[in-house]
């Protein structure tokens, strides 16, 4: 089992707020203790394209995941993240870019079996689901 963490206050932008950065550092320390000094084996640090927290997570050995949108693909280096996320209904060109990056891909946010089927057919290797019982095949 992997725990995906999205530290909302530092995941969406280049954060300058010292309080938010301190809270992020406290969370890293908590995870370190909670997972016996090896959270990198069980935690996936989730961020957005403009977020900088993934660099701090990487420095601590975490795997990272970016939740992306099609209009961001041309301006980011996909290899900086271990796992890539994309909207379930993204156009084929977006899925082609993700496939070329050779990373696992998670599609977001699935709310029904039809969306899951479409995303998996497009190339997603995993699903981010709001209500799993409504999506499970």
How does this model look, in words?
There is one protein chain. The protein is of the alpha/beta class and 137 residues long. The protein has one domain (3-135): TIM Barrel (Alpha-Beta Barrel). 38% of the residues lie in helices and 21% in strands. It is built from six helices and six strands; from the N terminus they run E-H-H-E-H-E-E-H-E-H-E-H. The protein has helices at 8-11, 18-34, 53-59, 92-101, 113-122, 132-135, and strands at residues 3-5, 43-48, 63-67, 83-87, 105-110, 126-129. A six-stranded parallel beta sheet has the order 1-2-3-4-5-6. Strand 5, helix 5 (113-122) and strand 6 form a beta-alpha-beta unit.
Descriptive keywords:
alpha/beta; 137 residues; TIM Barrel; 6 helices; 21% strand; globular; six-stranded parallel beta sheet
SSE run: EHHEHEEHEHEH
How many individual β-strands?
A: 6
Any idea of the CATH class?
A: Alpha Beta
Largest sheet: 6 strands, parallel
Radius of gyration computed on alpha carbons: 15 Å
**Percentage of residues in strands:** 15-25%
How many helices does DSSP assign? 6
Named CATH architecture:
Alpha-Beta Barrel
Going across the biggest sheet, name each strand in turn. 1-2-3-4-5-6
Give the helix proportion (percent range).
Answer: 25-40%
User: What's the CATH topology label?
Assistant: TIM Barrel
pLDDT under 50 segments (min length 5)? none
Distance between the termini: 20 Å
The backbone outline, from C-alpha atoms, is: globular
Overall average pLDDT: 92
Structural class: alpha/beta
Can you identify the CATH superfamily? Phosphatidylinositol (PI) phosphodiesterase
Number of domains: 1
């Amino acid at each position: 089992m992997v725990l995906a963490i999205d530290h909302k206050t530092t995941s969406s932008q280049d954060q300058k707020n010292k309080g938010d950065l301190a809270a992020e550092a406290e969370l890293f320390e908590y995870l370190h203790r909670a997972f016996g000094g090896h959270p990198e084996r069980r935690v996936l640090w989730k961020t957005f394209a403009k977020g900088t927290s993934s660099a701090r997570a990487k420095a601590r050995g975490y795997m990272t995941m970016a939740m992306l949108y099609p209009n961001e693909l041309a301006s980011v280096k996909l290899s900086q993240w271990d796992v890539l996320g994309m909207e379930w209904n993204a156009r084929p060109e977006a899925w082609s870019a993700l496939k070329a990056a050779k990373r696992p891909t998670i599609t977001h946010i699935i709310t029904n079996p039809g969306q899951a089927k479409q995303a998996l057919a497009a190339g997603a290797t995993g699903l981010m689901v709001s209500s799993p019982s409504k999506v499970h095949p």
